Sequence to fold (200 residues):
Amino acid sequence: MLKPNLIDRLLVTAEKARIRPVICINKVDLIDPADLQPLAGVYGQMGYRVILLSVATGVGGDQVHRLIRGQESVLVGQSGVGKSSLLNAIEPGLDLRVNAVSTENQKGKHTTTTAQLIPLSEGGYIVDTPGVRQFQLWDVIPEEVAGFFRDVRPYVSRCRFPNCTHTHESPCAVKDAVADGRLDARRYESFCYLQAGDSP
Fold:
């Protein structure tokens, strides 16, 4: 199951560490890709690279392969999303162990149990990581969260109060942007949770 709030937490961490994130959404062969366009569009408008892919059909694999060639990359995501299957598809001969998603609860099984540094045949390295069930922000204080949300950041300086939390104050440029449809309501809700230190 796709978890946009997990993506948001990973993006905050990437922004803080000045890492260039790429959002890969796998298994698009199981749904109508058009259903993903609203979510992918929101991230794309912020300047994030979004790749819709399917290891089963080969869609998007070439894009990922070109991106990681000669680079140092880390593959992070939930259990069962196909991280090891993707690496097997784009790096022949790896033969990483893979497992089916549980038929009982539709959750991925922990197949990769430790992080593994993999040298790539065309140069560079990639780290295959164990599946993530929860991801908490580390070393990010509430006052910093807005600065790591690319879509919230432009409105922060327009708020009337310099210490605005963008949750209950009025007037608030961030809340106004949500009300006017200039800022995605789901992203704003995710921002509020992270700023409060909660896990949506």
